[in-house]
Structures are given as structure tokens and as C-alpha cells.
């Protein structure tokens, strides 16, 4: 169950957040080849962020997945998520930092138990 958590200093006033969440969900699901129902995305705006000594539009994210991440996949995810942020929130790609975590299923809870997944 991949999960993307994003924080940005961009204000969401007048922004269609549902559209951004939907685009991020679809992007991740398409790259991973997973159903959209498996992907979780959270987005928080108006967070004070100083990136490179300025408070210009920026974003920070964390992407967690179970047993599937690798350098090629991470590069694709980073590029496509950055593109969505640039297109929909005007966050320059150079001002977006994304951290990846590849965890074991026993380190993730679901339905009151532990996540059990089959690896591809």
C-alpha cells in the first residue's frame, strides 16, 4: 500500500485540492501498475518552509512502499510527482525534495493487523 505524504508552503486558497490528490493518486498507481485503491496520498499546504534560504514555493515529501522501491522506480516517481507539483501548484522541480522508504510488511499496520503483500 504505497503512501505519499507531501507538505508545501503554497497556499491552497482557490486551489482544487481534490484534482491534485486525484492526479497524484493516478500518477503513482500508473507507475506502479497498482489499482488506485491501493494508493494513499496526503497533501498539506501553507506549511512554513525555507528551502535554499528562501521561502519561495517549495515542497517536501515522503514516499513509503513495501518491498518494491529501487533506483529506477524512485527516479520515475520523483520526476512525475515533481511534474504534478510544478503544473498544479507552481512548485519548481528544483525546489521539491522527496524521501523514499522501502519497508517490510511487518512494519505496516492495516485493518488492525500487519500488512501482508506478495512481491512482484
TrEMBL record:
One of its GO terms (cellular component) is extracellular space. GO terms for molecular function: phenylpyruvate tautomerase activity. It holds the Pfam family MIF. Its EC number is 5.3.-.-. Keywords: Isomerase. The keyword Isomerase applies. Belongs to the MIF family. This is Macrophage migration inhibition factor-like protein. It comes from Medicago truncatula (Barrel medic).
Amino acid at each position: 500500500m504505497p503512501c505519499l505524504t507531501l507538505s508545501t508552503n503554497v497556499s491552497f486558497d482557490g486551489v482544487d485540492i481534490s484534482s491534485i490528490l486525484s492526479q497524484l493518486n493516478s500518477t503513482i498507481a500508473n507507475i506502479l501498475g497498482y489499482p488506485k485503491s491501493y494508493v494513499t496520498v496526503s497533501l498539506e499546504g501553507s506549511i512554513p518552509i525555507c528551502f535554499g534560504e528562501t521561502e519561495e514555493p517549495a515542497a517536501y515529501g515522503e514516499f513509503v512502499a513495501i518491498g518494491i522501491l529501487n533506483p529506477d522506480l524512485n527516479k520515475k516517481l520523483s520526476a512525475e510527482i515533481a511534474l504534478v507539483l510544478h503544473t498544479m501548484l507552481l512548485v519548481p522541480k528544483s525546489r521539491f525534495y522527496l524521501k523514499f522508504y522501502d519497508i517490510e510488511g511487518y512494519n505496516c499496520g492495516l485493518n488492525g493487523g500487519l500488512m501482508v503483500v506478495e512481491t512482484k
